[in-house]
Carbohydrate kinase
Amino acid sequence: MAARRLAATPMTGPCILAIDNGTQSVRALLFDLRGDLVAKAQVALQPCNAGRPGWAEHKAEGYWEAVCEACRRLWLVAPAARGGIAGVAVTTQRGTVVNVDEQGRPLRPAITWLDQRRTDLSQVPRVGPLWRAAFRLARVDGTLRYFQREAEINWIAAHQPDIWRRTHKFLLLSGYLNFQLCGRFVDSAGAQVGYVPFDFRRHRWAGARDWKWQALAIRPGMLPELAPPGTVIGAITPAAAAATGIPAGLPLLAAAADKACEVIGAGALAPHVGCLSYGTTATINTTSTKYVEVTRFVPPYPAALPGAYSTEVQIFRGYWMVNWFKEQFGDRELAAATEHGMAPEALLDRLVEAVPPGSMGLMLQPYWSPGIRVPGPEAKGAMLGFGDVHTRAHMYRAILEGLAYALREGKERIERRSGTRITELRVAGGGSQSDAAMQLTADIFGLPAVRAHVYEASGLGAAIAGAVGLGLHRDFASAVAAMTRPGRAFEPDAANRCLYDQLYRRVYLRMYRRLRPLYGEIAAITGYPPPR
């Protein structure tokens, strides 16, 4: 594991320690009550590897070890900060699961959200006839089958029955880290994103008669206690204090999943404000107190605001594509960045700026992984319009443009389903640090694109939940108002906006529909991706 540190800034009052366990790294972040980042330490995670195509696992203990290392490095940056910490809040990547025994020890590697294994329908629990009939009548019996095949619970129960018999609790990564910190099996209701028996409308475990209990091989006692975001769920144990350097006895607070925290960390509390996340998974989210299914029969995720919903559209492996490009084609930029002590992304921005808007007709559909219903399980990525004029610079710009097209399509789906127009954009995540990406986002959406005031928006969202739970801010609205503010705004260029609008409407919106049959043929011939 590699580590990076950020020099500390002077503390001006109590701080919240936010632990942000993402897909590529773990960050220990100190925020003050104005939302300023006081100090940061970051530990890179080794890539997931389960030895089979489409599988993705990570040593569960490795996540905890990275948390401990990040915290210890934080105290080297800010040795005096420990005395000013008021509480701790955890936010993590979503959908990564950990089986533990009665002592909270992992029984197998964590299956991460990137994993694509699935269970044969002959090996999943049988749903009762009444529920099966209800799904057939609603013409969504495919959704039931998809849920059962994708659920990690069912795969482990079918393929590793001994581990499943020994499983005391089935936790999401957030629940596992909370246990390591406070010794209790407890998690935030705002972190429950995955194939678990969760009631997404009421933000609690599903009721006894819910179909999910029949569809999954799990019992209620195997799940942790749930608490709303912004509540105290425990205290840092002496063992956790010895491992991390966090003072023992500090309150541990419920936050939410990383995307939910990122939304409030970017200041997007109202349904007319869209939050674009340019992270490993690229998303567009709005926060709403109204239950809205943007994709029919796919529930909205819980927001970091208690009782609210996150109307989200995802592009799996979104800004993962940027890392992919960097690893496959960015040798020159990586070498030059190392030589001159620069971030490779700053040099990659020069590639974007060397190419005109529209990438001289090179169009990318960013479906490196299938989505949830939209796109379908057969989806693949595609590039159209390639010619002898195109270079890797055109390819890189086309990746950024394709992601923005896909998220604009998501924006329009959210607007149609919610009845609320999105009139403001906040942009967070690693990709938001690119001026070139921000400008083409403004041009493609035809709206000002406003960067969050801090890059670590998900960590800030966790800190906001912590500040509310400790009474340091009155409520979430006042905490968001005090701890977030707009960063740099990028205004759309009229000529670029016109060009992009034509490419989006006349080309991009037609690509998936026309390529979908070919994707299906590719899968049938090659066997990849395997059928769901």
User: Anything to note?
Assistant: The radius of gyration is 22 Å. The chain has 17 helices and 24 strands. The chain has a mean pLDDT of 92. The CA atoms of residues 478 and 494 lie 36 Å apart.
